[in-house]
Amino acid sequence: RSLGPNAPISARVETDLPVLDENDDLAHALDMLRTHGPALAVMHQGGLVGLLSQEQLGRFLMLGGVPGR
């Protein structure tokens, strides 16, 4: 069974980290990392899908950022 990006996420989590979700853009992520610390919880439909650190986002931007933009 594939767990692609449209797979339902049933796990609900609570975190003390600032949360980035599908409604946030890259500028908001950068601002949150600058003001709230070293990592963000990345959520999709209320489920935790990963953590994003300042270092990871920096590497992503150095490699060209979002395709097509």
Task: Give structural notes.
It contains 2 helices and 3 strands; from the N terminus they run βαββα. It has a domain of 44 residues: CBS-domain (Roll). The model has no long low-confidence stretch (mean pLDDT 77). The protein has a 3-stranded mixed β-sheet. It is globular. It has 69 residues and is of the alpha+beta class.
Main attributes of the structure:
single chain, 69 residues, CBS-domain, 3-stranded mixed β-sheet, CBS_dom_sf, CBS domain-containing protein, CBS_dom
Give the gist of this structure.
The protein has 69 residues and is α+β, with helices and mostly antiparallel strands. It is 29% helix and 22% strand. Helix 1 links the parallel strand 1 and strand 2.
- Which class best fits the helix and strand makeup? alpha+beta
In CATH's first tier, which class of the domain at 19-62 applies? Answer: Alpha Beta
User: Uncertain runs with pLDDT below 50, 5 residues or more?
Assistant: none
**How are the strands of the biggest sheet laid out side by side?**
1-2-3
SS strand fraction: 15-25%
Tell me the overall shape: globular
Mean pLDDT: 77
Amount of helix: 25-40%
Would you tell me which CATH topology of the domain at 19-62 applies?
Answer: CBS-domain
Radius of gyration of CA atoms, rounded to a whole number: 13 Å
CA-to-CA gap between the ends?
32 Å
Per DSSP E runs of 2 or more residues, the count of β-strands stands at 3
CATH architecture of the domain at 19-62: Roll
Discrete helix count: 2
Helix-strand pattern: EHEEH
At the fourth CATH level, what is the homologous superfamily of the domain at 19-62?
A: CBS-domain
User: Major beta sheet, specifics?
Assistant: 3 strands, mixed
Domain CBS: 15-57
InterPro entries: CBS_dom (IPR000644), CBS_dom_sf (IPR046342)
Protein name: CBS domain-containing protein
Pfam families: CBS
